[in-house]
Write a structure and sequence with these properties.
globular, 10 strands, 9 helices
Length: about 270
């Protein structure tokens, strides 16, 4: 993607983000900047220059309320898509999209055309006991694997670098076995959704954004998020975790160091001309 094309996409996403923030402020909904969006706010006070998406998360109770009001709040050219609201939608993470802007995603085996989007991740609770937490982590990973296998040809980023060995093995199995026939997407999404909501967000000492690309690395004791803190992002204020340093170090290590060129624009997206 050219620098101009990427910046054009970022500005579309910024408009979507501003609409999301307006709704959250109007209805007093909790949210947090996540992943690369939080990193961009801390390191660049905006988008990471080579990043092509926006990630925000909502505690599950706020997310449920958000889904109840979102469709009557959006202008007609913005859309909301989720597994509970959109027939045929198979991406677990809900999205706000701009129907006027089409994006080509070439990261998976099959190239897809999508509307420009921002991701809205439900954030869930995790138990306090060490062994209960580990057992629940294993259950979540297995459920996510089943969903990914059910969508192997369209949702798995085959171009992602530096995968752990076990993921490489699972992907090779997916290439060999008829996994999309074995695992049925609708059933596996219901299974995953039920499991993710097993522990109450507000009553749990830990939180997780399990469907982010970092999976278990996005599990934290709530003390690191606290009531949140505001960060500058492209001229707007974004709520993020209170202790951004701990959160970013757990996910990225030395997060102030830029990645290699191979890791930039890992989504392999471009605006359709």
């Amino acid at each position: 993607m050219s620098e101009k094309n990427l910046r054009d996409l970022q500005l579309v996403e910024l408009d979507l983000l501003k609409e999301f923030l307006r709704i959250c402020e109007k209805y007093h909904l909790r949210y947090f900047a996540l992943g690369g969006t939080l990193l961009g706010a801390v390191r660049h006070k905006g988008f990471i220059p080579w990043d092509d998406d926006v990630d925000v998360g909502m505690p599950r109770p706020d997310f449920i309320r958000f889904e109840e009001i979102i469709e009557r709040e959006l202008p007609e050219y913005f859309h909301y898509k989720s597994i509970s609201r959109t027939p045929g939608y198979t991406h677990y993470v809900p999205r706000m999209t701009d129907g006027r802007v089409k994006v080509i995603d070439s990261s998976a085996a099959s190239e897809k055309e999508k509307e420009a989007w921002i991701d809205i991740f439900p954030m869930d609770g995790m138990p306090g006991g060490k062994y209960r937490r580990k057992f629940h982590c294993v259950c979540l990973l297995l459920a996510r694997m089943r969903v990914n296998y059910s969508l192997f040809s369209t949702n798995i980023d085959l171009k992602k670098k530096d995968r752990p060995f076990y993921e490489k093995v699972l992907i090779q199995l997916g290439r060999i076995l008829p996994v999309e026939k074995i695992f049925k997407t609708e059933r596996e999404l219901v299974r995953l959704d039920r499991l993710m909501q097993k522990y109450s967000y507000d009553e749990s000492p830990y939180l997780i954004n399990f469907m982010g690309i970092h999976k278990l690395k996005e599990m934290f004791h709530k003390k690191y998020y606290g009531d949140g803190a505001l960060y500058d992002f492209e001229g707007v204020k974004l709520m993020g975790p209170q202790d951004y340093d701990h959160v970013l170090r757990q996910m990225y290590g030395e997060y102030l160091n830029p990645p290699s060129k191979e890791e930039m624009n890992h989504h392999h997206t471009r605006i359709k001309e």
